[in-house]
Write the structure tokens for this entry.
Amino acid sequence: MTGQRPTALIADDEPVLRKSLTRLLAQAWPELEVTAQARNGREAVELFEALRPDVCFLDVHMPGLSGVEAARHIDRRAHLVFVTAYDQYAVQAFEQGALDYLVKPLQPARLADTVARLQERLRAAQPVPDTDALLERLAAHLLPKDGAAPPLRWFRATVGQHVRLIAADEIDYLRSDVKYTLIAWRGNDGKPGEALIRTPLKELLAQLDAEQFVQVHRSVVVNLRAISHVARGLNETADIHLKGRSEVLPVSRSYLHLFRQM
Amino acid sequence: MLRGRRLLFALGLAALLGLIISPAYTVPKAVVIGREMLVGLVALLAFGLFEQWPARLPRWLARWALQVLGVATAIAIAVPVIYFVQYHGEAVPFWKDAKRLNGFSIMLSTGLLLAPWITVAVLFRQRDDAARHQALAFELERSRLERSALDSRLRLLQAQVEPHFLFNTLANVRELVDSGSPQATSVLDSLIAYLRAAVPRLHDPATTLGQELQLVRAYLELMHMRMPDRLQYVLLADESSADLRCPPMTLLTLVENAVRHGIDPSEEGGRIEVRVHERDGRCHAQVIDTGVGLRRGGVADDGLGTGLSTLRERLQLVFGGDAQLRVAALQPHGVCAELEFPAQRNPA
């Protein structure tokens, strides 16, 4: 890091507020280079993996993956500063855990304090404290209470050179390979994509919703939502055809009973 | 309970009467008291009978009059029957024996004289009790309604000025001002319009749909400024519907719900469509969003949170059962909230 300018990532779903923090940081910390701007938690994690900035400013409340959940993925690989508009509970937790945080609307004096602390930590090359337990509690608290949404499962997988976060919802099927598991998924744009993850199929299956994902073959797990139709073959086998994908998945004999009624 | 008290009252009164008149008789006190109690029982039966039967009375006959008459008739029949039965088989019938006839007349006359008055007194007392009971029940119902109205207003107050919304919006305003953006004034105007509309109207039970739509527009303008890449919106309202009465915060609650539960949790955002029109004396309002929908929560109907249940409560208070709120999931994702209530205009 010596001789190099420190880098930062800013994550906020509101563009004006990203601009605001960028502008205020330019005044308070001119050497800092804001290398990444993320619009949500998922982008924050992906950009972090690609660029490895020294400091991450994370808005707590973001669509999809929240700032706290993104922080858990980033783990202790960067200095974290949380940004929140109003959340008594989160602020209290940040105070208790000695986590850095800023309150919106941002006050330049307060930002200057935070910057001074961050500069000190970077200079001393202090390790980032382990706050995962605290963050886990916070993440649970931040889930919408009235909608009672169950937490989404996210998987960190590689697409070419990049790391992508893939939500369980977006997975069409999983197929185990020699060293990896292939994740066939589709993003918000609906375009099918493929990613690789090191976690074995069996372990992944255990983390998925059993109502939605079923194993149909020794090496294949499929999302029921992604199935277009099932074609019966000879010899007690069947083929699964998928919506919007040309590949065909095999169903082996021992799993055929799953589709008897269909 | 009531029957027991009646029986005790009738028998007690009869026994007292028997005790009073017993010195005029040669037979033992107990016999006189017994006879009177029997008469009292018959009178009570007549009272009870005509209280229920016949179920319908001709208009010229009041039930209380029937009851008084019934009681008198029952006594007029019961006393002779008792005397007849008791002295049946004796050499001289009781009406030929001067002493017995005398006793018979005393019993009959005191019975006929007192029973109607007692009946009237009892009826009066009953009516008084019923009225008091009803007044109490009304009072209870009224205070219950008042309390739930107050509760829902308080909840509205607490739910309304959402700090997260306010501080985030202020953070935007601050940046626009600091960076000298020409947008600053118009955003500040929207915020002022929103706050002005949102705050004092809590005390005003009926605002117009036009005012409500202004509030919705100010809110959507603010949200669009905050998430320009994620929120599109359109407001479609009949001009004629502007002066319809509309409880405050009805439409806004639906729109806020669409933003909070539909658009805000979605990475790609979506579109909100507000449609208002009047048809067949009813006001129809729809708030449609293409956000994440009910999918993630997996909750049906009322699952959209406290905002909607408070709204349901308020609609119930204002329109009784005459307003409907329906929430449905849309394909591929999104929510349609539909509100229907009577179209009323304020008297000019």
Notes: Residues 2-141 of chain B form one domain. Residues 296-303 of chain B have pLDDT under 50 and may be disordered. The interface with chain A takes residues 163-164, 166-168, 170-176, 178-179, 225-230, 261, 264-269, 296-299, 303-307 of chain B (CB under 8 Å).
